[in-house]
Write a structure and sequence with these properties.
The chain is 78% helix and 0% strand. By secondary structure, the chain is mainly α. The radius of gyration is 21 Å and the shape is elongated.
Length: 173
């Protein structure tokens, strides 16, 4: 009888932990509460992709601002690495949504165009930063990861642009 109670207790605990894990995974650690709410409220994959791209752009702007200021802060390297990690997370999530939409043949044409255009801007800036950015040694590894994430996202967008059927053309009567 005791073993049966213990088994049921373990089963109940495992079920509870498994049920709680997906809820905790919903909130990305690099998104603010407001940003996470916007992602949840977006109705289409295209809207979510555009949101992730805009969040990535925000991280780039913050990075540019932080790098333009004099470095007297002990936590500057931590902030720069955090911004680059957050940027890479946004770009990775956008690329995942693009891949999923490509598999499902969902219409995300305007989001693909935005990813291709903004992604090239992001990549250009990040590569310039890798070549001659200030204090590169403090964020080089994270910067390399961000560049790789951007390249991967651009490849995914190009692949999706080729594979997703074009929107229907309306004929004039």
């Amino acid at each position: 009888m005791h073993a049966k109670k213990l088994g049921c207790g373990l089963l109940l605990m495992a079920w509870f932990v498994a049920g709680a894990a997906p809820a905790a995974a919903q909130k990305k650690d690099y998104l603010s509460e407001t940003e996470a709410d916007k992602i949840r409220d977006a109705e289409t994959p295209e809207q979510r992709i555009k949101l992730f791209i805009s969040f990535a752009a925000d991280r780039i702007k913050k990075l540019q601002y932080d790098l333009s200021r004099p470095s007297g802060d002990n936590r500057r390297a931590e902030r720069l690495n955090g911004l680059l990690n957050a940027y890479a997370g946004c770009v990775d999530d956008a690329a995942e949504l693009i891949a999923l939409a490509r598999e499902k043949q969902q219409g995300i044409h305007s989001a693909l165009k935005e990813m291709q255009a903004r992604g090239m801007e992001f990549l250009s800036y990040l590569e310039e930063l890798a070549a001659k950015g200030p204090e590169r040694e403090t964020y080089k590894d994270t910067l390399d990861d961000a560049i790789e994430a951007t390249r991967d996202a651009l490849q995914e967008a190009d692949k999706a642009a080729k594979e997703i059927a074009p929107p229907p053309v309306r004929r004039k009567n």
